[in-house]
Amino acid sequence: MSKPEFVYTIYIKTTPEKLWHSLTDTEFTRSYWFGCILSSDWAVGSRMHMDRYGKVVNECVVLESDPPRRLSYSWHSVFDEDMKKEKPSRVTFVLEPDGSAIKLTVTHDGFAANSKVLPSISSGWPLVLSSLKSILETGQPLDFDIAAE
After folding, report:
1. Is 68 helix (H, G, I), strand (E, B) or coil?
2. Cis peptide before 97 (omega within 30 of 0)
3. Beta 70-77 vs 101-109: how paired, if at all?
4. Average pLDDT, the chain
């Protein structure tokens, strides 16, 4: 039986360096992640937390950092009591040049059976990554109606 995972690939007209910056710069993340900021020094073993409107929603640890090619961190959702009980999952970003674009593949795996986090991220990642693509290509993030937690 295969383990549950989420994989999403998107092509973004940008450079590897700009895409890496957009994934790791605290203020830039706020612009496409609907008010959520990611804070870390991005060294392997460092803590990373995701805050949304002043509230920590995910507690993470950097597992791999190979700029501008590969980034991975654990993901522990702490904003919901049921999700908080689950073991941390893992997010991995792979950046690959492809012509004038970068192929960005995001794999989110390591979920427990019957995970409550998996359905949440399965709808969340496409919104976040589409907004990231939009801001890098047009200068404007997408304007989805995302309610504050």
Report:
1. coil
2. no
3. unpaired
4. 93
